[in-house]
Amino acid sequence: MAFKKEEIEIIEPKDIFVGDKDAPVTLMEFGDYESEACAKVNEVVRQLLEEYEGKIRLNFRHFPLTKIHQRSLKASEAAVAAAQDGKFWEMHNILFANRRNLGTTSLKLHSKEAGVSNKKFLDDLVNATFGWQVQGDLKEGINRGVKDVPAFFINDEPFVGKPTFENLSKAIDAALKKTKKKPAAKSTAKQRA
Q1: pTM score, two decimals?
Q2: Boundaries of every domain in the chain
Q3: DSSP 14
Q4: pLDDT digit string (tens) for 8-30?
Q5: Of 14, 95, 167, 169, which one's alpha carbon is 20 to 30 angstroms from that of 157?
Q6: Are strands 151-154 and 18-19 parallel, antiparallel or unpaired?
Q7: β-pairing verdict for 25-31 and 56-62
Q8: How far is CA 108 from CA 53, 75, 90, 120, in A?
Q9: Nearest CA to 134 among 124, 122, 120, 123?
Q10: Looking at the predicted structure, is the pLDDT value of residue 175 above 90?
Q11: % of the chain at pLDDT higher than 90
Q12: CATH architecture of 13-175
């Protein structure tokens, strides 16, 4: 009797968003959970999501700087594992809050705090079940020219400058203006046809 192998669909980081799914502006961040700068900018991003509610959505992509942050790779894998349980953002914020405490045992405790109920969470971490997804993010970041974190893209355009609330707000406002102009041009073309 042959057994059919169970296919498990993995939710990829590129498909995980917070914010309105129909928002006109997508903010993509490449980051590292052990990075002090990323932890600080996480607070800025939370403010932006509140300020621009309904207008922006965030996609966090993993870019662990493993040469200086030895635990960042496993932390990223833990976030992807939590995503499979619908708890990515809870885990994401807990990881930044505990960025100096990201050993495997701590990650298991953080997952409980985030509300992850997967009994295989620790096995998944030990076996690097979600390592390919993190590596995929890393490759995409490199292909996009990311060299350091945090790195942002707004509607796929690289954000240049210090990622402060003020600077990111200006870039988001500019992107919102662009998105408002595009539909108007399309509707004018339709009217002429």
Answers
A1: 0.87
A2: 13-175
A3: G
A4: 677 888 889 999 989 999 999 99
A5: 95
A6: unpaired
A7: parallel
A8: 32, 10, 14, 10
A9: 124
A10: yes
A11: 81
A12: 3-Layer(aba) Sandwich (3.40)
Q: Which DSSP string do the residues of 131-174 spell out, in sequence order?
A: HHHHHHHHHHHHHTT--SSSEEEETTEEP-S---HHHHHHHHHH
Tokens of 187: 């509707």
Sheet holding 18-19: strands in order across? 18-19, 56-62, 25-31, 151-154, 157-158
State how far the Cα of 117 lies from the Cα of 82, in Å rounded to an integer. Answer: 9
pLDDT for 84-103, tens place per residue? 999 999 999 999 999 999 99
Question: If 0-12 CB within 10 Å is exposed, 13-18 middle and 19+ buried, where does residue 106 land?
Answer: middle
> Where do we find the tokens 């635990």?
71
**Looking at 32-184, which runs of residues are DSSP E strands?**
56-62, 151-154, 157-158
